[in-house]
Design goal:
Helix content is 65%, strand content 0%. The longest helix has 23 residues. The radius of gyration is 18 Å and the shape is elongated. The model has no long low-confidence stretch (mean pLDDT 97).
Length: 132
């Protein structure tokens, strides 16, 4: 159960209306996902979050599927059920197969374990990236 009321999709608040319309157009969907409806309780924050997400998740030097896989990996690591479902659906829409999902989640699980082991052993980094 959400801790705030979900703002109706037909809200007449101008900022909410504009952002909701843009979400539908950009994502090519016919409804407003609940996370955006919750954020709309504070229209300025809704707009800020949407603007950042839209800019960062747009294809650039990294393609849209890779960005969604990263979002899924972070969501799984953070244990966000809402985001796991949302980003899994987005990955499916972009062509990720069930077999590929299995590989992605295996990598997520492996590196969550390896990170914890390295931290627990307090291992000092000995492999570093070269300067850009």
């Amino acid at each position: 159960m959400p801790t705030v009321p979900l703002i109706p999709e037909d809200s007449d608040h101008p900022t909410v209306r504009r952002v909701f319309d843009d979400i539908k157009a950009t994502k090519k969907i016919d409804f407003i996902p609940n996370v955006w409806r919750a954020l709309a309780t504070h229209p300025e924050h809704l707009e800020l979050c949407w603007t950042r997400l839209k800019a960062i998740m747009a294809p650039g030097k990294v393609d849209a599927l890779t960005k969604e896989i990263v979002a899924l990996a972070v969501s799984a690591t953070n244990g966000c059920n809402y985001c796991i479902n949302s980003h899994t659906a987005a990955c499916q829409k972009l062509g990720l197969t069930l077999e590929q999902l299995g590989e992605v989640l295996a990598v997520v699980g492996l590196f969550n374990q390896m990170n914890k082991l390295a931290d627990s052993y307090q291992v000092e980094p000995d492999l570093r990236p070269r300067p850009w």
